[in-house]
Amino acid sequence: MSQPSDVVFDPAAAYPGIPALRAALDRKDWVAARAVLDTVTPADRTALIRTCGDVRDLEDFLRYVLRGDPRDGAAAALLGFHLTYLGWEIRTAAWAKNVTEEQWAGFREHLRKAELVLIDACAYNPGDPAVWTARLLSARGLSLGIAEIRRRYDRLATAVPHHLPGQVEIGYSLEPKWYGSWDELRTFARDCALAAPPGTPHGLLAVEAFFAQFGAASDDAERQRLLHDPQLRAELYQIAQHSVLHPRFNREYGWVRAVSSYAAYFSMLRDQAAAARMFGLLGNLATADPWADTEEAALPKIRQARAWALGGAQ
Hints:
- By secondary structure, the chain is mainly α.
- The protein has helices at 17-26, 30-37, 42-51, 59-68, 73-91, 101-124, 129-141, 146-159, 164-173, 182-195, 203-216, 220-227, 230-242, 255-268, 272-282, 295-311.
């Protein structure tokens, strides 16, 4: 088995819809944008809309689109994500105690604007998963509480079961730093991953839940306990067999994140055969997380693990 020459972190390399949608939005060509969004799965549609919400100068354009067709759920979801993205950009990723009053005000103003757009969108399109996924993000940002977040997720799950972008989104809210606990997150992730059709990337939910807890551990002893917990390990292997290790694994939304995370997990466990399977699926693609906080820091770790795993698979 030959090794790919280098590591590519750009999501557009795995999802060609991203550059196509960005180009259409840069041109302010909504017909071309809808041509991209209307030909993909619901999960890919939501992911594309969220990913491209950071395109600059979209608000006036999308409001123009919605004045022409208030029922356009794709335009509403994109505007909701765009406004939320602008709000988070103002707030920054700083700890709450370090966010100024002016930043909080700008953050909340943009999220409230997003909510107004998305509420109307839900009235017109109550079954649109991208709209409900955007509302999960805005609800967390506005601190609306876990009851409201679960209500929104239930509406999403009723409309489109196993919608991975929405499941990833509520997973963040179930972390202890928001509204949940590690046990709640782990149970949710396990149940969703195993309920999804075999061969789908939903194993992402469980392995990301593991790494979220692993990264929050207080010391190395706790991290080693988590890594070698026999029940947790058996659970993650069971989910992997249902997902990334399934012979008919489906490369839809989330597959690179799922496989890259499992490559990291199997490498940490020194399971060379399983790690080699993951690197074989990835080719030269990867995500920095959970290897490291930045692409620069992740790169040597991925190269080293890949060389070890694929060297033993030759």
